[in-house]
Design brief:
This protein has 134 residues and is mostly helical. Helices cover 43% and strands 0% of the residues.
Length: 134
């Protein structure tokens, strides 16, 4: 049998490489660490029509200053939709990723008209940028 003729050290090295490849494949696209804030600043330009990055300054949408880690519908000076008030979310990186992909399916009835960011890289970069707004 072929595997029996392979020395144990080599067999261990092959197994380690296979596990590393499986890990990389399984974690690819889960961009919590992969986002580029500079690229995200460019993606954020799509948001500027409705949102600001300044604390306390709302437009059609609420300020996104400090959004990462914030509870949904928590800015008292902004009139959120009833759907967003009921959503009960915390804007973690994972939750933002899910929401930014398709806002209307994640919070049906939201008044956010933006269709979402289908591109995972853009979402990763945008979230990395939003994390800098503190």
């Amino acid at each position: 049998m072929f595997c029996c003729s392979i020395p144990n050290v080599l067999r261990s090295a092959i197994a380690a490489c296979l596990w590393a490849a499986i890990f990389v494949a399984a974690t690819a696209g889960h961009g919590a660490l992969a986002g580029d804030p500079a690229a995200g600043a460019q993606v954020f330009k799509k948001c500027l029509v409705c949102h600001t990055k300044e604390a306390g300054k709302n437009k059609i949408g609420p300020s996104l200053f400090g959004v990462v880690g914030r509870r949904s519908a928590s800015i008292s000076s902004y009139a959120y939709s009833p759907a967003m008030k009921r959503a009960g979310k915390v804007w973690t990186e994972a939750e933002l990723d899910h929401y930014l992909a398709d806002p209307k399916s994640v919070v049906p009835g939201t008044k956010m008209t933006f269709p979402g960011l289908a591109d995972q890289r853009e979402r990763d970069d945008l979230i990395a940028y939003l994390k800098t707004l503190k």
